[in-house]
């Protein structure tokens, strides 16, 4: 689920966060540390303005504290709606759609999305468009739904571009499969630093889906996705660096990406970390650590880890 609007850059400070909210866009790519810092900076003063209150609300949701703060979230969101603070209409819609702090109610979700859209809010257009495409508490209207989605795309909302592009890539949500049009939307979202769009764009370049195959360009988009913490991308980028394909060979970078994914609990990366420790790629040779990582992967059913254990240990 997503409560946020993507922007062209990561949000790293409270002033930047407030500036983005006031301009109508906000990024969901806060690091945990920066979100905690901004939350403390807001402190008890978050009620001083609607913008501060909304920033506070986004941050506590980002920190996944909504379950412990259901009353606070709802009271604050309702206060902002009562103040006719437009982004809060959309946020209330997402709470009802995703049963976060409240029981699921798509009638209420659609009504809040409609209110946000009628006030010119891009993400409201996106969410209302999804309602029409899927017939969620509104009469099914594919053409109108697509119109709303494209309005959101044209206003710079990257999630809308990713939604349309991914739907065309898979031929779902009423969209006909169309690789070339899918690539157009996916790349648009990726160039606005949408995390999963970066990964999919890398995949499309790597495999020549909807565009000319270009592994060097694929690497750049995969690396962006890895920077956002997408574990699949970390392993792919790590392998590019390990093998020296389309980028200079760099064992240190390879190990760093593999370890990032492994430490996030991504079991396919356990094999790669083990290989690095076994051969000393980007780290000191340590066969015991290699064994530990492969055993961990083997316990989770990773076939490569099992084969490494039988071959090397």
If you had to describe this structure to a student in words, what would you say it looks like?
The chain has three domains: 1-156, Serine Threonine Protein Phosphatase 5, Tetratricopeptide repeat (Alpha Horseshoe); 158-228, Tetratricopeptide repeat domain (Serine Threonine Protein Phosphatase 5, Tetratricopeptide repeat), CATH 1.25.40; 229-313, Serine Threonine Protein Phosphatase 5, Tetratricopeptide repeat, CATH 1.25.40. It has helices spanning 14-23, 32-42, 50-62, 70-82, 86-97, 106-118, 122-134, 142-154, 158-170, 179-191, 195-207, 215-227, 231-243, 251-263, 268-279, 287-299, 303-312. Residues 1-10 have low confidence and may be disordered. By secondary structure, it is mainly alpha-helical. The protein is globular, with a radius of gyration of 22 Å.
């Amino acid at each position: 689920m997503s409560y946020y609007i993507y922007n062209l850059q990561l949000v790293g400070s409270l002033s930047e966060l407030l500036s983005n909210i006031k301009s109508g866009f906000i990024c969901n790519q806060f690091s945990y540390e920066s979100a905690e810092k901004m939350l403390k900076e807001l402190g008890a003063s978050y009620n001083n303005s609607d913008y501060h209150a909304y920033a506070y609300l986004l941050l506590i949701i980002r920190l996944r504290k909504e379950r412990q703060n259901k009353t606070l979230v709802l009271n604050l969101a309702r206060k902002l709606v009562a103040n006719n603070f437009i982004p809060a209409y959309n946020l209330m819609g997402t709470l009802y759609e995703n049963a976060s702090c409240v029981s699921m109610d798509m009638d209420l979700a659609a009504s809040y999305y409609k209110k946000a859209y009628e006030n010119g809010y891009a993400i409201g257009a996106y969410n209302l468009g999804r309602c029409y495409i899927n017939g969620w508490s509104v009469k099914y209207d594919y053409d109108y739904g697509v119109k709303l989605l494209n309005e959101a795309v044209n206003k710079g909302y990257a999630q809308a571009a990713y939604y349309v592009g991914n739907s065309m890539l898979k031929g779902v949500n009423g969209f006909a499969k169309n690789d070339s049009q899918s690539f157009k939307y996916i790349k648009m979202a990726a160039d606005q630093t949408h995390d999963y769009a970066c990964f999919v764009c890398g995949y499309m370049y790597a495999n020549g889906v909807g565009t000319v195959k270009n592994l060097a360009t694929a690497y750049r988009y995969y690396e962006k996705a890895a920077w956002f913490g997408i574990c699949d991308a970390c392993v792919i980028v790590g392998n590019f660096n390990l093998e020296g394909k389309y980028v200079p060979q760099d064992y240190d970078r390879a190990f760093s990406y593999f370890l990032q994914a492994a430490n996030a609990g991504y079991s396919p990366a356990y094999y790669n970390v083990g290989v690095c420790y076994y051969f000393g790629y980007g780290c000191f040779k340590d066969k015991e650590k290699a064994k530990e990582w492969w055993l961990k992967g083997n316990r989770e059913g990773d076939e490569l880890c099992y084969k490494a254990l039988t071959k090397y240990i």
